[in-house]
């Protein structure tokens, strides 16, 4: 028998009884589609056994919180960000009368980052913060916790906050394994500058995993076959033309994102290189455009990641579930015509 010491059972009591995380219990209570039926049934049984009753609306009203969620995101017009935001919006709008609006702060320059954190970290404006891809600092987390403002990370890690991420190193390994299985040994890489003003690390993590997998196979990622630039299509095209202009060009190229992979394809076209006969190309993300152009890529579930992050944030806002859980999404190779 659970002793509640004068209080009713909490969401954490239900989680312990069901053998799941508190965030999973919150998802079940809020009818999230992201929980499989056996787990959902186990949580429902624990709720019934303990007599737990959710009073999230009253809790939210008592806290005096706003009914908007602040989202801090870099370059919100990029395909991968748009897919993530679709997932966020789908979940936020799915709470019936408790629906949440979305207050978006687009960070297009490094100097805007601090402004975004300061302007959105206001309890009178937002009920919680979702921070996408941008690293967050300890002092900023201290300020959020002093203000009792819930925050969740998406596509970026910090051990003190709940987060939804992918294993980018493993994604790079998958790309290498795919190209090696196709018989390639002279393989190039096109990605972001390892050091950048935003603190992004995904491209470098993917490159590290890619290089490690090549080395394990007795190959290596030749520094002469690596090119770094801004994360856009036009620069990726220029970098690819530089690679293919070498006396011994690569027979395959791994681009750190689908957007850059599109630039790689344009560069191949400009240099008269056939894909995949002369150069195989693999990207990362699996945005809508990848399927349209037939791009082989490493798929990360972008829209689902937005849904999961939104669920974590609602759990923190409405149920006080702010455990710093890390949800790691599955990566898969989607093979199309470019390899």
Automatic annotation (TrEMBL):
Domain HTH lacI-type: 9-63
Entry keyword set: DNA-binding, Transcription, Transcription regulation
SMART domains from the UniProt entry: HTH_LACI
Coiled coil: none
Any Pfam family: LacI
Residue stretches spanning the membrane: none
Stored SUPFAM superfamilies: lambda repressor-like DNA-binding domains, Periplasmic binding protein-like I
PANTHER family, per the entry: HTH-TYPE TRANSCRIPTIONAL REGULATOR GALS (PTHR30146:SF109), LACI-RELATED TRANSCRIPTIONAL REPRESSOR (PTHR30146)
Protein name: LacI family transcriptional regulator
Organism: Solirubrobacter deserti
Lineage: Bacteria, Bacillati, Actinomycetota, Thermoleophilia, Solirubrobacterales
